[in-house]
Predict the structure.
Amino acid sequence: MQKILVFQRCGLGAGKVKGIGEFGRDIALTVVDAGSPSAPIVDDPESYFPKNADELIADADLVLDHLYHPDLSGFLLDRAKALGKEVIATGRKIPGAVSPCTCCSLGRIERLGSYAEQFGAPEFEVEVDGEGRIASIRVLRGAPCGATWEAAKAVIGLTVEEALPRIGLATQFNCFAKTSANLYLQNPLHVAGEIHTAALEHAIEKNEDA
């Protein structure tokens, strides 16, 4: 059982991790709410964390940062590193943290354990019937927000030509990423849609080759 600890501010991580609770296997999820500074710069970031923050981090196997405040994220990373824990901070370039562009673009990084096996860049297994329609689709790996599983439902019964654009749109509809460009100068919603479309196309090609 992998223990995943999520630090969030103002509920900003709730939607982005809901898929872990719904679809994760052998994962224990703990979500901690930190205080929310009114200023863009704070001198005492530790005051916004619970007093037992070190204890929580030490007990976790992996930490997810959904604080979206540079000083709070910096403090969390310092404490996690001191306690020997990896931190994933999506959509931000934070030295020392694993920082994919979107939650659904995380690669299979072995040191991140079961989380990275189950969540990140999507992978599908599909069956196409004799009429060229998606007869079934199985999510092998998906976004921690759960958008992958919702999008997969939307393409069942569609032709391959219809399914490819549809899964991208359905992903964007269910995605919790911001619509504005992030530090990677990319629109996270567009990235999410494109990644899912490419993953479905790859699964269809594998089905044809089988």
Notes: The first strand starts at residue 2 and ends at 9. Helices lie at 14-23, 53-59, 70-82, 114-118, 147-153, 160-174, 188-209.
